Predict the 3D structure of the following.
Amino acid sequence: MMRLESVAFPCALITLLGCSTTPASPTPDRPAADVAPPDVAAPDVAPDAAGDADAAAPDAPPCDLDVPAVDGATTGYLRFANLTRGAGTLRFTAHNLPMFREAFIEAIVPEGTASAQVPTAAVAYEIRVTPAPGQDAGIYADVSTSDAGMLTVGPDAGATPCSAAAMSGELVAPACTDVYAAASCTVVLAGSPTGDTALRQERRLWRFPDLAARGDTCATGRVRVVSWFASGPALNADIEGGAPLARNAAYAEATGLRVVPAGALRVAVRSAESSDAYGVLPAGAVLGAHAMTLHLWGDARDAALRTPSALLLDDLPPAR
């Protein structure tokens, strides 16, 4: 399994992935033209409700095995996931680092959901998070992707490091990430307000490279699992009534991809360290021929809900 890194400087280049880490695996204003609000990933369903009527899986787009041509060489994608208990709705902002072309994104993301993959300039960004109670999910951006890249001449060309300090009103320290052309990166806020800092289970930002992998049949997709179950045990996950999906998934570790039938996915989750079972969780729809990531997240110390929840996200960016 791969260890997810959370450090305060831009990732090293891995062209295939939307962002990178060391080692390669997940890790961490201005008004402008509006961008149409995205479809926000559906909130998780608590385990005690999973036994009720099945939640309908979201409508999946038609399966297409043809790989589309990459539209331009200067556009990448950023997505933001709010996977920490008790945080409520949050505002994620991504601003280019000073030595790069200008770009800005703001995403309002309710707890337990993720934004769409937002097309943006392929440059390095600083990501910050603030509470946004009562606000509706949506995205707005001020981005020009026609001339992206590093500034090499003029007064704005000097390099400025990513700030590691949270400013007043911010939930966690910022993180920096690179975005690469035709690839996608998901920035995940995970952890617990009482999490062990030595184990990196406090609330913090992680940079998670999406996998631009496409299968050769519409009958199946490929799913990997990453655990964000703060202060809890390593997890085992099985497809309901079927094959194992993950074994001994420790916090901030991702499994390899497994072939999974396309369609609605429900997963039985249990502790890998005891007999504790967390129920069967509706996760979403597996898309035929797509690589996807199943995020198992939660806070074992949260008094309201001590069990994990599930969120399944498509790794393929729209251009791929």
